[in-house]
Amino acid sequence: MSLSRDVILLITHSGDFFTIDRVAEALAKKGVQPFRFDTDKFPLEVQLTAQFDKSRSYHKLEYGANSISTEQVKAVWMRRIWEPNLGKELAPQFREACIKESLATLDGFWDSLRAARWVDNLERIDVAHNKLRQLRVASELGLIIPQTLVTNKADAAREFFQKVKGKMVSKLLTSLSRSMEQPAFFLYTSVVKEEDLLDAESLRYCPMVFQEEIPKQLELRVVYVNGNVFVGALDASIYAGAKVDWRSPGVDVGKWQHHELPEQIVGCLKAFMDKFGLLFGAFDFIVTPSGEYVFLEVNPLGEWGMLEKDLDLPISEAIANVLIS
């Protein structure tokens, strides 16, 4: 069935739930038709046809009983892109080529939607994903950032360990995955001990990020939606003895709490997002025992469902409003 009215395209994956459903519900309540596209279902369960001639191009997407054309899509929410799930029956020697061709076809489809309103533009998301660029911009705008070293030199890592008096953590700049946010091997932020650096020569194969370990009173997830700021706070004392990263599996973080950011921090966040040209971002901050707000990073595709669920923050409605504005 071809949808007869204007639609909002929701780009996600088959395992997504709650956040995608809340945004779809918010759009429907406003009289707008959402269309969910699970990217991992292409090409096995989703059909995409593109035709070009001298005067025009035409794209049609068919998923289940519904279909849409490029002309119907007025706005796009970029939630997630996952690699195609090609099943087990495809011979391994063909899998890589099929994945590449499928992703290239999707790139063409995204291009056909360039006139639509995106939350957010893919190229801007790609630029904003670089954590080193984030640190530079945050510092330039007056946000406090941790002392940071990125190196593939073992001696430099050891010297930095001494500089921060042994209070050091490590992380990666990226998750080890080829596609946007697909489940993959991922290293969470972890404490570095002196013995960990005795055999650090393997850094020559892969540079790593080292930062001073910041003392924590609270950890914040700050969700920015087109000038609106929604904040959830975790009491770091509850899980301080477990692991450094509250996102790590098995860490009991307790309940999310409401928190109000200082106006100066809110102003910096707006300037930060303007720099990157983004409408959405999920920021991570530490609030130290002395009350300093320390910027860690922003994820242009970050999670926020726990804040809406636990704190009843209207994030899905804010996203819906941006999409239909």
Describe, in plain words, how this protein is organized in 3D.
There is one protein chain. This protein has 325 residues and is α+β, with helices and mostly antiparallel strands. The chain contains eight helices and 16 strands. Strand 12 (218-225) and strand 13 (228-235) form a beta hairpin. Helix 1 (19-29) crosses helix 8. The protein is globular. The relative contact order is 0.14. Residues 176-186 have low confidence and may be disordered.
Short description:
Residues 8-125 form the MvdD-like pre-ATP grasp domain. With 325 residues, this protein is of the alpha+beta class.
Calculate Rg over CA atoms. Answer: 22 Å
Succession of helices and strands: EHEEEEEHEHHEHEEEEEEHEEHH
Structural class: alpha+beta
Mean pLDDT: 89
Pfam families: ATPgraspMvdD
Organism: Floridaenema evergladense BLCC-F167
Protein name: MvdC family ATP-grasp ribosomal peptide maturase
Topology, element by element:
Elements: E1 7-12, H1 19-29, E2 33-38, E3 46-52, E4 57-63, E5 66-69, E6 73-78, H2 92-112, E7 117-119, H3 122-128, H4 131-140, E8 148-151, H5 154-163, E9 168-171, E10 190-192, E11 208-212, E12 218-225, E13 228-235, E14 257-258, H6 263-276, E15 280-287, E16 293-299, H7 305-311, H8 315-324
Parallel strand pairs: 1-2, 1-6, 6-7
Antiparallel strand pairs: 3-4, 4-5, 8-11, 9-10, 9-11, 12-13, 12-15, 13-14, 15-16
